[in-house]
Amino acid sequence: MNYEETIGTAENPIVLKTPSLSSEYTMHVAEKDGKVILVCTVKSTILHYDIRIIKDLHDMLKKHGDWMLLGSKDEKVEAKEGTVEFWGRSPENPIGGWYGLKKGLRGRVGMYIPPLMEALGLAEVEHNKRNNSMKGI
Asked: How many other C-beta atoms are found inside a 10 Å radius of the C-beta of residue 112?
């Protein structure tokens, strides 16, 4: 899949809402240091994620086969085992660690990646005020 066409560029990013639908942010594809990455812009904060998270998270969710808690946490906060956030920083995931690429802002996989996965038609995401889960399609 050509993610740049679907997700967008800096000039024309995809606009998403957090799982609770309380905040809006954008996501686009860019190149940094010769690698294709996801750029997530939340107000004035810019986070970077390894684009491989899209395929890897989808594969993991399909294998998991059931709903999984998102468990979004900042990088400095320990993620709860068994959550999407925990998987996104686990040495056991396909890249062997963090999908977040900016030191100090590597967390929040469970906040910003699930709505993108939903928009791409790869997952279902709950939209409660808190404690949301996702499931691969």
From this structure: 23
- Alpha-carbon distance of 120 to 98, in angstroms, equals 22
- List the Cα angle 54/107/64 in 5-degree steps: 45
CB 71 within 8 Å of CB 79: yes
Q: Which domain holds residue 69?
A: 3-136
Name the domain count of the chain.
1
Spell out the alpha helix ranges (H) of 3-81: 3-7, 52-64
Q: Is the pTM of this model over 0.70?
A: yes
List the structure tokens of 116.
């993108």
Give the model confidence (pLDDT) of 95-105 as tens digits: 999 999 999 99
Q: Which of 89, 28, 94 is nearest to 59 (CA)?
A: 94
